Amino acid sequence: MCAALVLAGCVSPAPDEASFSDKAAMTAGAAASEVSTVRLTTQLLLADRLQRNYGDVTISASEDALSSVSQTFSVVQPPDKTSDAVRTELEQLLGDAEDAVAAARIANRRDDHPAMRKAVHDLGKSATQLQAAEKKYG
Amino acid sequence: MKRLLGVMLGILTAIGGFVDIGDLVTNAVVGSRFGVSLAWVVVVGVVGICVFAEMSGRVAAVSGRGTFDLVRERLGPRAGLLNLLASVAVTLLTFIAEIGGIALALELVSGVNYLLIVPFAAFALWLILWRVKFVAMENVFGLAGLALVVFAVAVWQLGPDWEQLLHHATHPVVPFGEGHPTYWYYAIALFGAAMTPYEVFFFSSGGVEEKWRRKDLIEARMNVFLGFPLGGTLSLAIMTCAALVMLPRGIEVTTLGQVGLPVAVALGKIGIAFALVGFVAATFGAACETGLAVGYSVAQFYGWQWGKYVSPARASRFHLLILVSTLLAVAVLLTTVDPIKVTEYSVVFSAVALPLTYFPILVVANDPDYMGPSVNGRLANTLGVVYFFILTVAALAALPLMLITKAGQ
Amino acid sequence: MSDSPDRVPRKATGEVSYDAALRLLDRQVIDSDGAFVCNVDDLEVDVSGTGPPRITALLTGPAALGPRTGGFIGRWMVATWRRLAPDQDPRPGRIDLHLIADIDSAIHLAVPRRRLAELADGDKGIDGFEQWARSVVIGRIPGARHDPE
To answer: Is the pLDDT of residue B166 over 90?
Structure first.
C-alpha cells in the first residue's frame, strides 16, 4: 500500500523523530552496503581477479539498489526541524554516493584504470561517511 | 569395483545436489550480517534432513511407492488435500525461486539481463524434465554442483583465525546492530533452507524412479549420511566466506553476485568460474527436483501415473502439471519480482510448512503395511519426534517473527 | 507385495466384508502391468437385501472424491468436474470388485488399464482426464511416446 501511495506522489509519514532517524540510519546502512560492494567489485576488476560481465552485473545491481534506497528515503516526511537537518545531511551523502557509483560504473566499462582507482578512493570515503551517519542516527 | 564407483557417485551427487538457491542466498545473507553465529542452525538442519531423508528413502526402497501415496490414506481426503495444497504451494514457490536463480546465475556469466534469460532457462528445464533420463539428470547436476567446493577452498585461502571462528560459532552472540528477533528470524530461514520440504518428496519418489529395492538401502543410507552432511559443509563455507569478506566491509548480501565476491577475493577469476558453474548446476538441479516434486505430490495424491520411468504419454497428467507449473513460474518471474526476495520468502514459508510436510513421512515410516519389518526403530522415531517438535516451534514462530522484523530488515 | 498381517480378508466370491472394506479407501489402484490407475475415492455400496451392506465396486474421480471430501472444497470439486466433463450426466469411474486380483498396501487388478476402458463401454470416469491430457496436450509434443528404458 505504501508503494501505491509513493507512486501517487504522496509522502510517506514518519510520525516522530525517533522513527525518522531509524529510517535514516537504515537508509545510510543500506547505502553504505551498496557503495562498499561497488568498491570491492572495482578493486577486484582492477586486480584482474573478476570477470568483466560479473563485475558489470554486480555494479549495475548495486547502482539500482542505491537509487531505490535514496528514492524511498526522499519521500519520507521529516517531522521536525532536527529531522530536517538529518535529511539534508543524508541526502547530500546519498548524492555523493550515487555520483561515485556512477563514476565507477563508467570507469569499469571503459577499463579506465586511473579512473577506477579514483573511484575506489571516492567510494571508500563515501562508505565511511555513510557508516558514520548510520551510527549517528541509529 | 563397479559397485564402489556407484556408491561414490551417489555420495558425490548428494553433496553437489544439496545446495540450492535458498542455501546460496540465505547462508550468504546470514554470514554477511551475523558472521558465524548462526552456524549451529545449519548443523541442526542437516541432522534433521538426514533423519527424514533416510526415512523417506527407506519407504521408497521397501514399499516401492512414493510417500504421498499414503498421506491420503492416513489423514483422510480432506486433511490430506490441505496438506497437499500447503506442500505444493511451498514447493511451487521454491520452484519459481530456483528458475529465477538459474537466470541470475546465467546473467552473471553472460551479462545479459536475467529477465531475457528466464524463458530460455525455463524451456531448457522443461526439455530436461521431458526427455532426459532421471539418473542422468541427477548425476550431471549433482557432479557439476561439486564446483561449489570452491567456497570451501576460498575459506581456506582467506586464512582466517580458526580459533576465533570456532569460538564465534560455538558461542553465538547476536552481533551489534542486529536485534534478537532478527537473529531468530534468520535462524528459522536458515532452518527452512537446510530442511527443504521438497527434498523428501523428491528423495522417496526418486527412489522409486531409480527402482530401489531393499538391497539398495545401504547405498541410499550412505548417500544420505555422508552426502548430506558434506553438502551441509558447503553451506557453512558459503556462510563463512561472507562472514570473512562481507561482514568487515559492512556489505549486506542482497544479490547473487555478492554471494560470489568472496571467492574472487580469495581465488580470483578461476574461483569465480567454478562458482558460476556451481551456481548454475545447483539452481538447475534444484529446479528439476522441485518441478518433479510438484508433479509427484499431486499425482500421488490422486493416484495418477507419475514418473520419468514411463513415457510421457503414459503419465500425461503428471507431465501436463509440470508444463503448467513451468509456464506459471515464467509468468511470475516476468512480473520483475526480485528472485532473491522470492527465495527469501520461499525458505521462510518452507519452515512454516515443515511440520505439515514431514508428518506424513514419520507416519508412513512407522506403518507396517508399507514397511513390513523395516519400520522405524527406536532411534529413528526418537529423532523424528524430537525434530518434529523443533519443526513445529520454528513453524509457529516464523510468521510472527516475519511481521515483527518486517521480513528481516 | 508384502506379507502384512493386516491383509484385507476376501471371500472366494470376491466380496469384501464391510469393516475391512473401509480400509480400501484412498488406496492406490495398480493394474496387472504395474501401471498406476487411480486412487479409491469412494465405494459403491449395495444396501438392498438382507444382511449387512455389501461393497460392490470401487469408485474414482472427482464425482466420488468430492462428496466424500465434503464441505466447500468437495462441492467445488464436483461442480468444476461436472462443467468440464464431456458427458451429459457424468458418473464416477467404477471398478467392479471382481477385477481385483490382490490387496496389500495397494489394490492390484487382474486386468490391464486399457481393458478397464473397454469394460466401461467408453465411460470416461476412470481415465477421462488422462486421455484428455494425452490427446490435447502431451500427445502432441514430440517425443511423448519415447520410452525412457
So the answer is: yes
Residues of chain B with C-beta less than 8 angstroms from the C-beta of A35: none
Residue C139 is placed in which grid cell? 500427445
C29 contact residues in B (CB cutoff 8 A): 303
Please report the pLDDT score of residue B185 as a whole number.
95
Q: Which residues contact B279 (CB under 8 A, 6 or more apart)?
A: B24, B101, B104, B105, B108, B148, B256, B259, B260
Domain housing C36:
22-140
Does residue C138 sit at the B interface (CB-CB below 8 Å)? yes
Q: What is the CATH number of the domain that holds C123?
A: 2.30.30.240
What is the residue whose three cell numbers read 562458482? B275
Task: Tell me whether residue C10 is in a domain.
Answer: no
pLDDT, residue C19, reads 58
Give residue for cell 523523530.
A17
Residues facing C59 on adjacent strands: C42, C94
**Residue that is written with C-alpha cell 464391510 in the block:** C18
Give the cell for residue A18: 525517533
Chain B residue with Cα closest to C140: B313
Where does A17-137 sit in CATH, by number? 1.20.120
Q: Is the pLDDT of residue C15 over 70?
A: no
Of the candidates B349, B177, B142, the one whose C-alpha atom is nearest the C-alpha of residue B252 is: B177
Residue B369 predicted with pLDDT over 70: yes
Q: Quick check: is C88 in a domain?
A: yes
What CA–CA distances, in Å, run from C149 to B152, B217, B325?
38, 23, 26
CB B105 within 8 A of CB B278: no
Confirm whether C147 is domain-assigned. no
Q: At A138, is the secondary structure helix, strand, or coil? A: coil
Cβ neighbours, 10 Å, residue B337: 13
Number of domains present in the structure of chain C: 1
Give chain B's domains with CATH numbers.
14-404 (1.10.4160.10)
pTM of the model: 0.90
